[in-house]
């Protein structure tokens, strides 16, 4: 059983961005919490109501939602429910709570759960199922997921062989930020393999630059960006199946696969020739906040920054984030161009009641109809739903993320540290990664994390 950590990295990222007065809408960060801005003045067209007639007359019936998505990020969610309410006459009651991840368990165990909960991690879903109060998803929801999501996404909503929770929003962490102008001026092209990424890096070094910039400082959560680096390379070098075994501790944290992954990260982040452009030496990575880490791209003092889609929020007002803009991102490539491992996160919809109106709304949320309605009223939001029309998305990073998620070759894996026991994923992994950046060797680092796994 995975242990849900008490606070989500998405909220850490969002709080940092808001405290800096940033203006971009955020995508969900590390463990899937939705963070986005609404698109004012967008009216949603009527939808086909026939799929909901099978649930009978539900006019006036209420469906309660409980979630960690709070004001102002809740506004586009509520707007996206209007087509369903107009179709059916049902009423959606939305409750956002910053303490959701703790309180939803308390409410379930006390026999007072909501009708539906938006769960930001598979580990929390497993704990909710263990209470005996969560219900398997209706057949209509399972059919939508089979049609519009990959098997990898359905697996994250499945516990002990039963499908409980359809995916909601998603985010992509496997991105590298760069300056389109710098690339155009120097004839650089986006790499399609890890070998090409290294060749690009070496080409930049030969031109007199320290190409990579990085920062892992995040207050009490310092170290979490390093876990993403290692997970991305674990996924690329050893493949999705081995990654899954590592996350579940079916193979040791300090085995040869993990050693190769961390050493591959070290080839970039512990290489004085490669880092820390515009910010200092290798050790400066530990003292640089993750919010500031990619900003030297705009100053021309670094060229590459590996960070998730939410990082768009950290660029100052007036920065054009687009393929022809001041800054953009490319997919962090795999070993070869034929594979597409993707690290990310997302939320899942789990029900605690099976009334007709609840099942009808679950069906709506799992459909491509809802995904497109949500896209039309949001910025900084994306779904892995294959029926999402990318033309409905509101900014270039959302479009890029959706294209990556919809790629038939994509092999999506959830952020590993978010699914590990808290003693590992949000403690030893963070702390020992920080010690590694400041000089600790790979073996000692991995051995200490391995020893933190609950016996």
Automatic annotation (TrEMBL):
Domain of life: Bacteria
InterPro entries: Bact_solute-bd_prot1
Keywords, in A-Z order: Signal, Transport
KW Signal (keyword) present: yes
SUPFAM superfamilies tied to this protein: Periplasmic binding protein-like II
Signal peptide: 1-30
Gene3D superfamilies, sorted: Periplasmic binding protein-like II (3.40.190.10)
Family the entry assigns: Belongs to the bacterial solute-binding protein 1 family.
Name of the protein: ABC transporter substrate-binding protein
């Amino acid at each position: 059983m995975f242990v849900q950590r008490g606070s989500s990295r998405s909220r850490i990222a969002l709080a940092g961005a808001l405290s800096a007065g940033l203006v971009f809408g955020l995508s969900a960060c590390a463990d899937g919490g939705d963070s986005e801005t609404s698109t004012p003045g967008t009216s949603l067209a009527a939808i086909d109501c026939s799929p909901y007639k099978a649930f009978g007359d539900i006019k006036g019936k209420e469906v309660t939602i409980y979630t960690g998505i709070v004001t102002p990020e809740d506004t586009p969610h509520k707007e996206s429910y209007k087509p369903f309410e107009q179709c059916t006459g049902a009423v959606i009651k939305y409750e956002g709570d910053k303490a959701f991840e703790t309180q939803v368990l308390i409410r379930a165990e006390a026999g007072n759960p909501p009708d539906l909960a938006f769960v930001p991690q598979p580990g929390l879903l497993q704990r909710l199922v263990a209470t005996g109060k969560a219900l398997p998803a209706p057949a209509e929801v399972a059919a939508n997921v089979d049609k519009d999501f990959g098997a990898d996404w359905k697996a994250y909503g499945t516990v002990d062989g039963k499908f409980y929770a359809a995916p909601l929003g998603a985010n992509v962490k496997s991105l590298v930020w760069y300056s389109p102008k710098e690339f155009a001026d120097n004839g650089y092209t986006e790499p399609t393999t890890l070998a090409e990424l290294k060749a690009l890096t070496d080409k930049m070094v030969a031109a007199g630059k320290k190409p990579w910039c990085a920062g892992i400082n995040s207050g009490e959560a310092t170290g979490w960006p390093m876990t993403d680096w290692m997970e991305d390379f674990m996924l690329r070098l050893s493949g999705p199946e081995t990654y899954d075994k590592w996350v579940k501790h079916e193979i040791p944290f300090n085995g040869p696969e993990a050693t190769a992954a961390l050493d591959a990260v070290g080839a970039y982040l512990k290489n004085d020739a490669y880092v820390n452009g515009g910010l200092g030496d290798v050790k400066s990575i530990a003292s640089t906040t993750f919010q500031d880490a990619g900003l030297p791209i705009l100053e021309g003092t670094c060229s590459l920054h590996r960070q998730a889609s939410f990082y768009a929020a950290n660029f100052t007002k007036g920065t054009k984030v687009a393929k022809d803009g001041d800054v953009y991102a490319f997919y962090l490539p795999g070993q070869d161009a034929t594979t597409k491992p993707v690290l990310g996160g997302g939320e899942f919809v789990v029900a605690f009641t099976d009334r007709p109106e609840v099942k009808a709304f679950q069906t709506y949320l799992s459909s491509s109809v809802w995904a497109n309605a949500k896209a039309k009223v949001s910025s900084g939001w994306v779904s892995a739903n294959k029926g999402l029309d990318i033309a409905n998305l509101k900014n270039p990073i959302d479009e890029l993320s959706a294209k990556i998620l919809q790629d038939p070759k994509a092999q999506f894996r959830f952020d590993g540290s978010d699914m590990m026991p808290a003693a590992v994923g949000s403690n030893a992994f963070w702390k020992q990664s920080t010690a590694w950046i400041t000089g600790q060797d790979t073996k000692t680092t991995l051995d200490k994390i391995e020893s933190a796994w609950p016996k």
